Amino acid sequence: MNLLILGITIFFGIHLVPIFPLKNILINQLGENRYKGLFSLIALIGILIIIYGFSSADYYPIWGPLSYSKELALTLMPISIVLLVAANIQTNIKRLTKHPMLIGILIWSFVHLLSNGDLRSIILFVSFGVYALIDIIFSKKVLTTNNTANYTLTKDIIVVIIGLLVYAIIVYFHQYIAGVAIF
Asked: How far is 74 from 79, CA to CA, in rounded Å?
């Protein structure tokens, strides 16, 4: 369990840097490319420790999954994945939600929290959900809408199709990724 908590601390610690003025100080000292490289390396180390820590942590059940958690996951997870895909493309989805990636992470963490009531899952999914909320609330990113941008329905349809394809791949490989078969 300690490795899981260490990985979460490293991963979210580095992800909180952009919220604070420390990001600008680091960019000024390291340069933008080195900052991005260091940020990515630390985040990767954190996620690898999370994966290893989660898989090696003991299972302590706290609650059982809700009787409808599978149906809820099958309903909400495609929305989560579509929002994650929409995060980096100028679409109406992004224009209307402002934080599609963070909202997608919130949905993902909520669905998985309801489906997994063991201590290690609670620690993992609550940490992702809390981080997403913190980033939405305290983010200093300027969220402006470019009125001259071409927000066509075609881009939205492409994002939905890609999101659903990614979701289908995740469902298929979920048993290999998370050890739990969806179907």
From this structure: 10
Q: Are 36 and 85 in contact (CB under 8 A)?
A: no
Q: Using CB atoms within 10 A of its CB, is residue 83 exposed (0-12), middle (13-18) or buried (19+)?
A: buried
CA separation, residue 83 to residues 33, 98, 124 (Å): 27, 10, 20
DSSP 92-130: HHHHHHS-HHHHHHHHHHHHHHHH--BHHHHHHHHHHHH
pLDDT, tens digit (0-9, with 9 covering 90-100), for 37-79: 999 999 999 999 999 999 999 999 999 888 888 899 999 999 9
pTM of the predicted protein model: 0.86
User: pLDDT by residue (tens digit) across 76-96?
Assistant: 999 999 999 999 888 999 989
